[in-house]
Specification:
By secondary structure, the protein is of the alpha+beta class. It has helices at residues 6-34, 57-68, 110-113, 254-267, 306-310, 340-347, and strands spanning 72-82, 88-99, 105-109, 118-122, 128-137, 142-147, 171-176, 184-198, 204-211, 223-225, 231-238, 249-253, 277-281, 296-301, 316-317, 323-324, 328-332, 335-336, 355-362, 365-372. The longest helix has 29 residues, at 6-34. Mean pLDDT is 85; it is low at 1-39.
Length: 384
């Protein structure tokens, strides 16, 4: 039997401790290098911008453009599709984006990059840099892309403001690439707040910022700044019969981006709690004698979803072939649910693993059912 002395034990312990310390240091350094940057945003006002309270409006415009336009990029996308005759035709698009960090993460709209097979970014001029999609969130129309190659000089990072503190009449500035024209500046004011707009998948985006700053095709994904040079919105939509600026533009509040961008960078997607149901709004059943005038009718229930496990019921069929309406959701944790938009909004306030009290109407009676929220399965609301 091999024997070991106390001295040998001490030496082994010292060597093991040293080895462990070196290993931890190396792993920590490597993991810091490999960990995607961008979870910590710059939120301080950029240097070089005079207090707007003492600067002239013209000076403020000039300083913001000079300081921050280098952080606004022109995004070029390319995809390929077959025409009627089977020939492959390239389809190109463009948009804008804001640099988030020195790792080359760039915030833009989902609809700018959702179908892209090739992406490139320019910082003004002819030089372009390859980029790839990091993560997309169709529900908020936001996405993050990352430079595959970067300029030699440090990137200009766009600082983020606080969209919860905005007021109507406040000055705003938009920088983007309308119609492909690099780094165009337009100015205006906040025309309205808490405007409900819809993403392309028909999900409602809460609390959009309305502005009369000129926004045109190509501005999508670009920043909307306050007068201190902080991004307070991501320009996303315009309301225009002609397709050009009519003075009614909308931006996704930056506080939404603050909440979801770290998830996009770390996992490539946003994890939202779901009930695992297909639903229809009560208003679609005007001709039916339902016990409530507002709410969400559960149409189908996934057996392994949150609602299914909690015992919520969807549409059923009698032996005679008649269809019987299932449970009707009218509230979540005491908040009223009038339609699917309300339901999505209230669920988005929670995380996977939370338990919520879902108030339903079943057989004419109101019942509160505890539901443990899960990630899936994903379902879609039926809108007719």
């Amino acid at each position: 039997m091999y024997k070991i002395t106390a001295r040998q034990i001490l030496i082994i312990a010292l060597i093991s401790g040293l080895f462990a310390a070196v290993t931890v240091a190396v792993v920590d350094r490597v993991s810091n290098r490999l960990q995607p940057a961008g979870s910590a945003f710059s939120e301080s006002s950029p240097a070089g911008i005079t207090d707007p309270g003492v600067a002239t409006d013209e000076q403020n415009n000039i300083e913001i453009y000079r300081t921050l336009s280098p952080g606004v990029v022109n995004i070029h996308s390319k995809s390929y599709a077959r025409d009627f005759f089977g020939f492959v035709e390239p389809q190109e698009g463009s948009g804008s984006g804001s640099v988030l960090d020195q790792a080359g993460n760039i915030l833009t709209n989902n609809h700018v990059v959702e179908r892209a097979e090739e992406l490139s970014v320019s910082f003004g001029g002819q030089k372009t840099y390859a980029a790839s999609v990091v993560g997309r969130d169709p529900d908020t129309d936001l996405a993050v892309i990352r430079l595959v190659e970067k300029p030699r000089e440090p990137l200009t990072v766009v600082p983020l403001g606080d969209s919860d503190k905005l007021v109507v009449g406040q000055k705003v500035l938009a920088i983007g690439n309308p119609f492909g024209m690099d780094r165009t500046l337009t100015t205006g004011v906040i025309s309205g707040l808490q405007r409900p707009i819809r993403a392309r998948n028909n999900r409602q985006i809460e609390g959009a910022i309305q502005t009369d700053a000129s926004i045109n095709p190509g501005n999508s994904g670009g920043p909307l700044f306050d007068s201190r040079g902080r991004m307070i919105g991501i320009n996303s939509q315009i309301l225009s019969p002609s397709g050009a600026s009519a003075g009614v533009g909308f931006a996704v509040p930056v506080n939404i981006a603050k909440r979801i961008v770290p998830q996009l960078i770390n996992s490539g997607r946003v994890i939202r709690p779901k009930l695992g149901i297909t639903q229809r709004n009560v208003e679609l059943f005007r001709n039916q004698d339902l016990p409530v005038s507002e709410g969400v009718v559960i149409w189908q229930v996934a057996a392994n979803g949150a609602a299914g496990r909690a015992g919520l019921r969807g549409l059923t069929q009698t032996e005679d072939g008649d269809l019987v309406i299932g449970d009707i959701i009218v509230g979540v944790d005491g908040d009223k649910v009038a339609n699917s938009d309300d339901l999505y909004r209230l669920l988005d306030k929670h995380r996977v693993g939370d338990t919520v009290q879902v108030e339903i109407v079943r057989n004419g009676r109101r019942v509160a059912v505890p539901v443990l929220l899960t990630e899936g399965p994903d379902t879609r609301a039926v809108r007719e």
